[in-house]
Amino acid sequence: MSRGPREGFRPAFRQWRAGRPFWGGLLLALGGVEVLLTLKASLDVILHVGMQGLAGYLLPVVMLLCGVLILFNPTQRLFYSVIGVLVSLGTWMTSNLGGFFVGLLLGVTGSCLAFGWLPDQEPRVGRRQRRRKAKAAQALTQPLEHRTGQTA
Question: Pick from 125, 135, 22: which is nearest to 74 by CA?
Answer without folding.
Answer: 22
